[in-house]
Amino acid sequence: MSTRPSRLRSIPKTAGLALCLALLCGCAAATTPAGLEDLPKAPYWHAPRVLELTSHAEAHRSDALIILKDGQVVYRHGQTARKINTHSVRKSIMAVLYGIAIERGLLHRDDTLETLGYDDRKAPLTPIEKQATIADLLKSRSGIHIDASGQNWERPPRHSSGPGEAFFYNNWGFNALGDILERKAGMPLGEIMVEWLAKPLGMRHFTAGDVDWDGIKGSSVRQYIIYMSADDLARFAWLVANEGDHRGHRLVSRAWILEMTTAHSSSATDPKERFGGGFYDGYGYLWWTRDSNGRRRICADGWGGQYIIIDPDTRLVLVNRRNTGTNLLTQGWFLWRGIETDKAYVFQLFEDVDRWLHAKDAGTGSAP
């Protein structure tokens, strides 16, 4: 596992106050335009109707907003080049990395923690818990309910379910996936992301140093934290919307993307409140699914207002970011004063834009 010091711990004490003030001021600073300049603009780039639909985004606490259609930029506004904590969107990124790792033969879906020789040194796993597979962890059905950095405090009692038996949004399993991938790939997570995603996708801002780690006393398994700009996250989201293909080069198979975004857990069979408080209908491999009037949506959801929403049929992508901080120091500031992006607004915006663009493509919409 990477031992790179965290962004917070690496701040020199002598410069702490000055840097803190600069970072806080920087939270509202404008970003540089570089980021998506190589992507074509859609025919409806900043069309009057698009501008009308997005006109209230800032009022609903959206700090960066990008909309893509068929790999073309429909709308881009705000702090799109600023590298911000992805929060739980990190997990959806991890799902794609696992698809690549499995297809390279580094791991298998049915590998158990026991066969991998993986354990928690501070809270040793039981023989039953060690039977959880990679697929169980990806589905959030590991049955391992112990302390975890970034944990869900409402977790069930330990041993209340076995591997594969029940869905619970479980950060221990999510964190373990990052640790396991580093061990099997033989390099730090940041470098994995650079080689497997950032370079092939032409990301403009992400570097290997944009992965940080955080721990908790009750577990030896640390949480990986990914900082990424909205521009780079939009490139990643388009890879998923385009079923793993980037400009004719396949980074991960179409079969994996479909398997990853298929609901392996459902609010029809597991407690509805476990699915984002009832906001989502299902959970695939670290991706949420949502039915909207019979239309399937694929979603990544991170604390504060980090969203990826995809319509796999119309190939519309929306990326929303809320600046919760560009390191652990500024994240603490946001925790004290911040208010999340209005989630209902973002999802309704996606529906409105999707509906309008679909009408335009069908030739039934009004002029831009």
Question: How would you describe what is shown here?
Answer:
The chain has 368 residues and is an alpha+beta fold. The protein is built from eleven helices and 13 strands. The protein has a single domain (47-361), classed as DD-peptidase/beta-lactamase superfamily (Beta-lactamase). Helix content is 32%, strand content 17%. Strands 2-1-13-12-11-10-9-8 form an eight-stranded antiparallel beta sheet, sandwiched between helices. It has a three-stranded antiparallel beta sheet with strand order 3-5-4. It has a two-stranded antiparallel sheet with strand order 6-7. The radius of gyration is 20 Å and the shape is globular. The relative contact order is 0.18.
What can be said about this structure in brief?
With about 375 residues, this protein is of the alpha+beta class.
